[in-house]
Write a structure and sequence with these properties.
The protein is of the alpha+beta class. It has eleven helices and 13 strands.
Length: about 325
Amino acid sequence: MANRIEIGLRQGIRDALGEKIKKRIIGHLRIHVDSVRTVEVYTIDGDLTPGELEKAARGPLSDPVIQEFAIDRGMACGFDWLIEVGFRPGVTDNVGKTAAEAIAILTGKPVRVYTSRQYVIGGIRDRCALDLLTRADAERIASELLANELIQRCEIIDGRTWDPAQGMKPHVPRVMGEDRPRTEEIDLDCPDEALIRISQERVLALSIEEMRILRDYLKNETVLARRKEVGLGARITDAELECLAQTWSEHCKHKIFNARIAYDDGEGHTREIDSLFDTCIKRSTREIRERMGAGDWCLSVFSDNAGIIRFNDDWNLVFKVE
């Protein structure tokens, strides 16, 4: 059985995320709205009693100082449009996984948790109290600002049909259907124009130089013999190609930061920078820390994609950015 727990801010508590979304709706989409409030939704797929649901809502899922909750009913009221955005089946839901672990520790029962977020939007009304915010506006806000249709689904509710006592029915994005993996072989023994087209059509973001390296690699007799030993053909598979493109991507390899760059200041002076990251970031940080000496409050930098600084004698702060 699935249940919904909705978490919203208490009356009088500033909704910073809602304010940010309101500004973007007005500034980017040129749609005038009066207010935007947000509600966090946890859909729990498991066998929990009403008491256990309330215990989870009061415990790990909400902050009792600034938030309140509703179980199997709606929190939103007095709005024109409600847009709920959640993940599609099979998309990783990290917050949902963490919530499921917390509930399992709390209740001793295994559950699955799926998260979503409601954007509760109030439109600006004219002097005749006529609605100026249309469904078309709500659909545009959802598709152009709030949801990525590749990985997210959204539901739009008209405030005139809303019954908070009923709320929304639990939506469990289970993966349905039979998994039948398919592998495609791709021929890279082709001219540069075809290599560029393959990179573009598959959104690999690989340069022609990188595509040539892959093409030439697959012509190596030793490589071909090794591939045959493990059951692979002479052509690269789509899985291999995707894996290499991801590994060689700017996100993973930081090719621009680590490249040799010929810098021209526009006044006739040029110099070569061997890795912006090593010279302008790592070296600068090292030199500053050396000057700080005993007053250096950096405890760990450039390790594990995180940084640790000393906050005071008792506490350190860890910054993890991904």
